[in-house]
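(Fold this chain)
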Amino acid sequence: MYTVVLGLHNITRWIVLIIGIAAIVRAALGWLGKKEWTALDNKLGLYFTMSMDIQILLGLLLYVVFSPITTAAFSDFGAAMSNPDTRFWLVEHIFTMIVALAFAHVGRSLSKKAATDRAKFQRAAIFFTLAMVAVLAAIPWFRPMLPF
């Protein structure tokens, strides 16, 4: 089960990135181009937050239930915190991703509640960009990949 959840978590990462970039580009173009908010804009925000929700759920399953590495790290938390790679997975990665999820949901909520199309695009562009920056910062691009 661990391998299946890990594989799904890895695949979902690309879905989050693709939909997130599409939502940001569309929101920025709408905001700067003074365009009309459409059903596609609404759906991109919805799909972005949904994909983030699924990704966080899969990550939490790995973190709490399936990962033998987190299980071992929790048995000696002090030693785990002294190792930068283990600390990244145990604290930094999950914290930053939860912050990213919060930004995505705030952006979705504020854009839905905004009175004008320009405000919808502006709020979506700002908060989805903040979410994506956090996601990109927490993806282990140049770290040794531990088998989480």
In short: The helical segments are 2-33, 39-66, 68-75, 77-82, 84-113, 117-138. The chain has six helices and no strands.
